[in-house]
C-alpha cells in the first residue's frame, strides 16, 4: 500500500471512531432511558413529582426542564448586554488598539476558567453579597445560578460576536462614512444590521453552553426538585440533578436520570444546530 | 458659485504630504488643481500614492489612526480640514474599487442611504423622485425599476457599481471621487461606466483614480501622473499623452513600467 493510501485509511478510521462514539452514546442513552419512558410515557416530561421512596417511586422531569430553561434564558438575558457591548468595543470602537488586544485576551482567559472555580467563586464571594442585599436568606437559587452562568457564557458570546463584527467588510463601513454618516450611525445602521444574524447565532451558541453547564450551577441553585417559584427560589437543572443523584441511583431512578440526560442532549443539540444553521445561512 | 465658475478651481491641493507611518510618505508634497465640470484622471503604477491622494480629498484617512496629513486641500477656496467632515463628505462623494451596495438594504434604500444614514427625513414623493433621478442619471432606472425593493446585491457587478454611483450622487455633491471604479468589472460594464462619467461631468466635477492608461486617455480632460508618491506631471490629458515633459511619464505611457 502506498503512503497516501495508509494516511487515507488512518484518517478514515479516526473519523469512523468519532461517528461510532457518538452513535454509541446516543444508543446507550436511549437504551438506558427506555424503562423510564415505558413506565411513565409522555407524562415523564410533564410530571412534577420526583419521589424516590421505594414502593411509591415516581419520576417526572418537568422541574429540571423548567430549571434548566429558566436559568439558561435568564443567563442569556444577563449576558447579552455585556457580551454585545464588549464585542463592539473590541471589534469596532477600539479595533486594532492595544486596549482591545488586552481585553480580547482577558475574555479568552475567562473562557478557560474551569466551571468548578466559577462555582466556588459564586459560593464564597457572590452568595454572601446577595445575602447582604436582604433579597434572599440563603443566597442559593435561580438568580444566583443564572448570574454565574451569565458570567460564564459572556466570554463565548463575546468572542464569537467579536469575530462576526470584525468580519463586516471595511468597504461597507467606508461607503457609509463616505456618505457623511457618523460613527454611531455606521455602527447602528451598517455594522449591526450586516452582522445581525451572526450576532444572534453567537448568543444561541452561548445558550447551548448554558443549558449543559453543570458544576457551578449545582453548587449555587439550591438543588430543590421543584418548579422554581421565583427569582430567588431554589430549583434544580437537568444537568445538576444527574450530577447529584447518579451515584446512589439504580433501577427505575437510574433510568429516569438517563432519560433526563437524553432530553438534555437533545435540547442542547437542537439549540447548537439552530445556531450553526443561522451562522452558515446568513453570515 | 457662478462667479467662481470659470476662474477658480473646484479643488486646489497645496503641498500635500501623507504618511501611513512616521517619516514614510505615500504622498510627497503634491500640489495640483482640479477644474470644475471636468474629469481628472490620476494614474500611476500600484503603490504610487494615487488612491492615497484621492482619499485625502474627502478625509477618509481620518477613519484610521496614525495617518499623518500635512499641507492643505481647498474646496471652492476653503480649506476642507476645519470643515465638518460630514458636510465635506456630502459635498465630495465617493465610489470605491469594488461595488459595495449595503447588503441589508434594497436598491431603493441604497440610493437614499445617504439620507437615511444621516437621519434626514424626506417625504415619500421626495424620496421617490431622488431615487428615480439618481437611477436615471446612472442609466440604471430602466433595468431596475421593476425590482426597486429587492436587495441591491442581486444585481450584476456593473449594475451594482452604477448603483453605488447613484448612491453617491443622490446627495447632489459637487465632486465625485472614484477609486478605480471599473477594475472589478468586465469590458462592457466598464464602457457603460465610462460613458456614464462623460455624462455626469456636466453636473459634477469628477476625479478618477485609474491604473488603466487607455481609460484615462479615453475619458479624462486632465491627467495627473504619480510615481513613488510624487506628482510627476499634470496637465491636459491630450498634451500629457502626446508630449509628456518628464521622462518618467513618457516611460510609463510607453509601457516601460507599471
Q: Please, could you describe this protein's structure?
A:
The complex is a heterodimer of chains A (283) and B (258). With 283 residues, chain A is mainly alpha-helical. Chain A contains eleven helices and two strands, in the order H-H-E-E-H-H-H-H-H-H-H-H-H. Chain A has a two-stranded antiparallel ribbon. The two termini of chain A are 43 Å apart. The relative contact order of chain A is 0.15. Chain B is α/β, with parallel strands linked by helices and 258 residues long. In chain B, the strands form two sheets. Chain B has a six-stranded mixed beta sheet, with helices on both faces. In chain B, helix 7 runs parallel beside helix 8. In chain B, a hairpin with a 2-residue loop joins strand 1 and strand 2. Chain B has one domain: 3-Layer(aba) Sandwich (Rossmann fold), CATH 3.40.50.300. At the A-B interface, helix 7 and helix 8 of A face helix 2, helix 4 and helix 7 of B.
Summary keywords:
heterodimer; A: 283 residues; mainly alpha; MetI-like fold; 2 domains; two-stranded antiparallel ribbon; B: 258 residues; alpha/beta; Rossmann fold; six-stranded mixed sheet; four-stranded antiparallel sheet; 11 helices; 34% helix; disordered N terminus
Short description:
The complex is a heterodimer of chains A (283) and B (258). Chain A is built from 11 helices and 2 strands, in the order H-H-E-E-H-H-H-H-H-H-H-H-H. Chain A is mainly α.
Any chance you could write out the topology, listing elements then pairs?
The complex is a heterodimer of chains A (283) and B (258).
Chain A: H1 3-40, H2 43-46, E1 50-51, E2 58-59, H3 62-93, H4 98-112, H5 115-132, H6 142-166, H7 170-178, H8 183-212, H9 215-220, H10 238-245, H11 251-282
Antiparallel strand pairs in A: 1-2
Helix pairs in contact in A: 1-11, 3-6, 3-8, 4-6, 5-6, 6-8, 7-8, 8-11, 10-11
Chain B: E1 11-21, E2 24-34, E3 39-43, H1 50-56, E4 68-75, E5 78-79, H2 85-91, E6 92-95, H3 107-111, H4 113-117, H5 124-137, H6 141-144, H7 157-169, E7 175-179, H8 187-200, E8 205-210, H9 213-219, E9 222-227, E10 230-236, H10 237-242, H11 247-253
Amino acid at each position: 500500500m502506498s503512503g497516501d493510501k495508509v494516511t487515507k485509511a488512518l484518517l478514515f478510521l479516526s473519523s469512523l471512531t468519532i461517528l461510532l462514539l457518538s452513535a454509541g452514546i446516543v444508543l446507550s442513552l436511549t437504551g438506558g432511558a427506555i424503562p423510564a419512558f415505558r413506565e411513565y410515557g409522555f407524562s415523564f416530561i410533564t410530571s412534577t413529582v420526583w419521589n424516590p421512596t421505594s414502593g411509591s417511586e415516581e419520576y417526572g422531569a418537568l422541574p429540571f426542564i423548567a430549571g434548566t430553561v429558566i436559568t439558561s434564558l435568564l443567563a442569556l438575558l444577563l449576558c447579552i448586554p455585556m457580551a454585545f457591548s464588549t464585542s463592539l468595543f473590541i471589534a469596532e470602537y477600539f479595533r486594532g488598539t492595544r486596549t482591545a488586544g488586552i481585553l480580547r485576551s482577558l475574555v479568552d482567559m475567562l473562557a478557560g476558567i474551569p466551571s468548578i472555580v466559577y462555582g466556588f467563586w459564586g459560593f464564597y464571594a457572590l452568595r454572601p453579597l446577595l445575602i447582604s442585599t436582604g433579597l434572599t436568606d440563603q443566597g442559593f437559587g435561580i438568580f444566583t445560578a443564572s448570574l454565574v452562568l451569565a458570567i460564564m457564557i459572556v466570554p463565548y458570546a463575546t468572542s464569537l460576536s467579536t469575530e462576526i463584527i470584525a468580519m463586516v467588510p471595511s468597504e461597507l463601513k467606508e461607503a457609509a462614512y463616505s456618505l457623511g454618516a457618523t460613527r454611531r450611525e455606521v455602527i447602528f445602521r451598517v455594522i449591526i444590521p450586516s452582522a445581525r444574524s451572526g450576532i444572534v447565532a453567537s448568543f444561541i451558541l452561548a445558550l447551548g453552553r448554558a443549558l449543559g453547564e453543570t458544576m457551578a450551577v449545582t453548587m449555587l441553585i439550591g438543588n430543590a426538585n421543584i418548579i422554581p417559584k421565583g427569582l430567588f427560589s431554589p430549583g434544580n437543572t437537568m444537568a445538576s440533578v444527574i450530577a447529584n443523584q447518579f451515584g446512589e441511583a439504580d433501577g427505575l431512578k437510574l433510568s429516569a436520570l438517563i432519560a433526563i440526560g437524553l432530553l438534555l442532549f437533545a435540547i442542547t443539540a437542537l439549540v447548537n444546530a439552530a445556531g450553526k444553521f443561522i451562522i452558515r445561512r446568513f453570515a | 458659485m457662478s462667479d467662481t465658475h470659470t476662474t477658480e478651481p473646484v479643488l486646489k491641493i497645496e503641498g500635500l504630504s501623507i504618511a501611513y507611518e512616521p517619516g514614510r510618505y505615500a504622498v510627497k508634497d503634491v500640489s495640483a488643481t482640479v477644474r470644475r465640470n471636468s474629469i481628472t484622471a490620476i494614474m500611476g503604477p500600484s503603490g504610487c500614492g494615487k488612491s492615497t491622494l484621492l482619499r485625502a480629498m474627502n478625509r477618509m484617512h481620518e477613519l484610521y489612526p496614525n495617518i499623518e496629513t500635512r499641507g492643505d486641500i481647498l474646496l471652492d477656496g476653503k480649506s476642507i480640514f476645519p470643515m465638518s467632515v460630514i458636510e465635506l463628505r456630502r459635498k465630495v462623494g465617493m465610489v470605491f474599487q469594488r461595488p459595495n451596495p449595503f447588503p441589508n438594504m434594497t436598491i431603493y434604500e441604497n440610493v437614499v442611504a445617504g439620507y437615511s444614514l444621516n437621519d434626514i427625513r424626506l417625504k415619500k414623493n421626495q424620496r421617490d423622485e431622488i431615487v428615480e433621478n439618481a437611477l436615471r442619471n446612472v442609466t440604471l432606472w430602466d433595468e431596475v425599476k421593476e425590482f426597486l425593493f429587492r436587495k441591491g446585491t442581486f444585481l450584476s457587478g456593473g449594475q451594482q457599481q452604477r448603483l453605488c454611483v447613484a448612491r453617491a450622487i443622490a446627495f447632489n455633491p459637487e465632486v465625485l471621487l472614484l477609486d478605480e471604479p471599473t477594475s472589478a468589472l468586465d469590458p462592457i460594464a466598464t464602457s457603460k461606466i465610462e460613458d456614464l462619467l462623460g455624462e455626469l461631468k456636466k453636473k459634477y466635477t469628477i476625479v478618477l483614480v485609474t491604473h488603466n492608461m487607455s481609460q484615462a486617455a479615453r475619458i479624462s480632460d486632465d491627467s495627473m501622473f504619480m510615481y513613488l508618491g510624487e506628482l510627476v506631471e499634470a496637465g491636459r490629458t491630450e498634451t500629457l499623452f502626446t508630449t509628456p515633459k518628464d521622462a518618467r511619464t513618457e516611460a510609463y505611457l510607453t509601457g516601460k513600467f507599471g
